[in-house]
Amino acid sequence: MPTKTSQLKPKATPESGQPKAKAKANQAQTDQTEARKAKTKASPTQTSQTKTRQANTDQAEASSTKTAQTEVRKTKAKASPTKTTQQPAQKAEPSAVVFSVETTQTCLSNLLAIVEPAVPTNPTHPMLGYLKIEVLPDACRITAADTSYTITATVGCETLHPGLGLLPTQLVQVIKAIPPSERLALVGSTLEGATKIQLSNGSGVISTTPIHLLADDFRVDDLTNPQFQHSLPAETLKLALQTVVGSAGPKDKAILHAVRLTFEANTLICQATDGHQITIATLEAQELGRRRRQTTEPGPVECCLPLDTVKALIKLLALASKESDVQVQLDTGEAPKAQFHIQTDQAQVTLTGQCLADAYPDLQQVIESFTYGTSALVERNALLQQAKVIKAMDSKTPVAKLALGSASIHISMDGNEVSGTQAVQASLDMPDPEFETSLNLDLLINLARSATGDQLLLEFGSSESLIKLAPVASAIDGLTIVGYMMPVQVRQSAPST
Asked: In the chain, helix, strand, coil percent, each to 5?
């Protein structure tokens, strides 16, 4: 039987190399184990760092996203005003225009010149620095307001968009400076609650700054309860008022700084006084022909107009069409007013003025208290001329002596440097052979200039009585002017010893 042979494994010897490989394997295993331990120990730190890096990454992304969103919002915010402004303007463009009118510079300038007397030089209220413009379907109306009266002028013109607005007084000066031949376009529009005015001509465009005042707040005087109506010739009324204004008192004399109008039966009486002189102008209705004044009131109706209002009215009457009438309306309620409707060659004009509520002095009662016994009939122009010669001797002290005698009126003055006498021929009617008084030459010149006739009748009483100047025959039908002046008391200086 065969014999089994056992093969023995060789023993490990250094020469075989197996121990070295095994050692290396063991060392590698040991190193791996140590690496795993080290890795295990280091893993929390790595995890923390990883989380930190991840957090930083997330934070950076969030920040970037937030920044992008912020930029988007900023872009939208910047774009939104433009969008908001443009969209309403596009939608409301037709209604954004407040008014629009086209006319010639001459037409608009004439309209502004008519209302100019009511434009205050130094406005006491912001609204008084503007004029109100109303664009009607076929006309343009402008109103100016002072503290005591308003003037409204209306003229027909080509209107594109009816409405109303405010014109700065400075723009009025610009319009007046534009050549008369140019055609103008005046347009008012709204922008963010304010009004802007644009003036276009053939040379460019002129714009105002935004106006935040409202045209509806502009004060326009009107009659609340017109009770009486009258019709008067414009030219005669102008002459009557021109005559009496010179006798009105200064502003510091309150009620005397005015003209009193009294409508009674067939007459209109205009009165003014400063306390030293009185002028009364009477318009007789019987002499007015077709322009007879029509009244409905049973008794006298009075209206006391401030002097500034009367002067503005005189300027408007000077513009009235030839032989035209003035329609007068009175409101005698708690806030009395007078309204005058005047037709000019360019426009229809209305002046509405507030009447003074204080009682005016009863001048007729003052006049009737004096009696006259001496008179002198003289040529008005001759008396006026010689009075001016004497006045030139001492302009600071216009007091002169007036003596009657030898069929003449003798006017004399003892001036500081020049003295003299001037005589005017006169027809005298005097109970005594001589008469002498002193008077203010300024008053005499004013009353003689205001008289309407060629001849004057001077009447005298005592040395303290009023001196009366009345025309013998008025040069204007239906108008009579009578003036009164107080004599001057001259103190005699004591003789030197």
From this structure: 35, 35, 30
SS3 35: helix
| Three-state SS at 178 | coil
- The helix or strand, by DSSP H or E, that contains position 315, with its residue range, turns out to be helix 307-317
At position 291, the amino acid (one-letter code) is: R
Compute the residue count for the chain: 497
Torsion of the alpha carbons at 247, 249, 251 and 255, rounded to the nearest 10: -120
- Read off the tokens for 111: 């309209």
147-204 per-position pLDDT tens digit: 889 999 999 888 899 999 999 999 999 999 999 989 999 999 998 889 999 999 989 9
Q: Which of 181, 218, 175 is nearest to 198 (CA)?
A: 175
pTM for this prediction: 0.74
Show the tokens assigned to 482. 């009578």
Residue for token digits 């060392």?
27
Residue 20: other Cβ atoms inside 10 A: 10
Q: 314 is written with which tokens?
A: 């005189």
| C-beta of residue 167 within 8 angstroms of C-beta of residue 108 | no
Is residue 143 a contact partner of residue 216, using CB atoms and an 8 Å limit? Answer: no
Q: What is the pLDDT of residues 190-212, one digit of tens each?
A: 988 899 999 999 899 999 999 99
Q: Write down the residue that tokens 């707040």 correspond to.
A: 217
What confidence tens digit (pLDDT) does each residue in 428-480 have? 999 888 899 999 999 999 888 888 778 999 999 987 889 999 988 776 778 88
Q: Is 372 exposed, middle or buried (0-12, 13-18, 19+ CB in 10 A)?
A: middle
- Tokens of residue 21, six digits: 């490989």
Average predicted confidence (pLDDT) for the chain = 80
CA-nearest of 115, 175, 177, 106 to 146 is: 115
Query: Which residues, in sequence order, are CB contacts of 115 under 8 Å at separation 6+?
Result: 131, 142, 143, 144, 151, 152, 153
Residues paired with 439 in a beta bridge: 400
Which tokens hold the place of 27?
């060392």
Calpha distance 233→126 (Å, rounded): 37
What counts of helices (H) and strands (E) characterise the chain? 9, 25
Question: CB neighbours of 95 closer than 8 A, spacing ≥ 6?
Answer: none
Contact 266/475 with Cβ under 8 angstroms?
A: no
Supply the DSSP string of 317-351, one letter for each residue.
HTTBPTT-EEEEEEE-SSS-EEEEEEEBSS-EEEE
- List the Cα angle 410/412/413 in 5-degree steps: 170
> What is the DSSP code string of 392-438?
TT-SS--EEEEEEETTEEEEEEE-SS-EEEEEEEEEEE-SSS-EEEE
